[in-house]
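Q: I'm writing up a methods section and want to include an example of the input and output format. Could you take the sequence below and give the corresponding predicted structure tokens, formatted cleanly so I can copy it straight into the document?
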Amino acid sequence: MNESAIPIPTNCFSPKGYIKSQPATGLLATRYGDRLIAVPEVLLRSISKTLRVETGEASYLALYTFGDSWGKSFGDRMIQDTIKYYRQPILETIANEFFVNVQSAWAVHGLGKPSIDFSRAERGLIVVTIANSGIDSGKTIDDVFSYRSFSLEAGFLAGWFSTLTGNKLRACASNWREAPTSMQFLIGSVSHIESIERSHLQVGMLTPEILNSL
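A: Here is the clean output for your methods example:
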């Protein structure tokens, strides 16, 4: 049987095939040799707390910027891994299969379970819900405007979707009081998200009724 006839497992990010370990060194890598590291939850919490002590509310912008860069790197790696695995451009990938891979990629990297709602895409919004987040897991959610606009996870999602779409996007939390089991984020153009923040999020979190009217 030649190589092209060998069936390829349907999920690019299945842990058994995607993660390769080196028992002698204790190192982890992807099937393509890219190094993987485990970031302890206590480290993420410590970075956030230290920044808050040192810079006050400006710490949120710093975390958002870091998250944006991290999300772009993660998105680029995921796209490249997917292209290599299926040997076809992303645009030729069936949408449902691609987003199954998205959920698997999030899970294998310990980032939680994303649910992506495109029902408002014609109005310029994507709604993403992250269950059991590995980024903001156990984090105390601050009921302040800066947190809603500039959390680490919001930055991560903005960076990831910016890489996927090729456009500069913004993200903000819309239900921060319901953490930590599930967080919801709005993603759209910079001007659109800033408009929603001014008109709604400065007053309070978005209710389902308000969200449906956007």
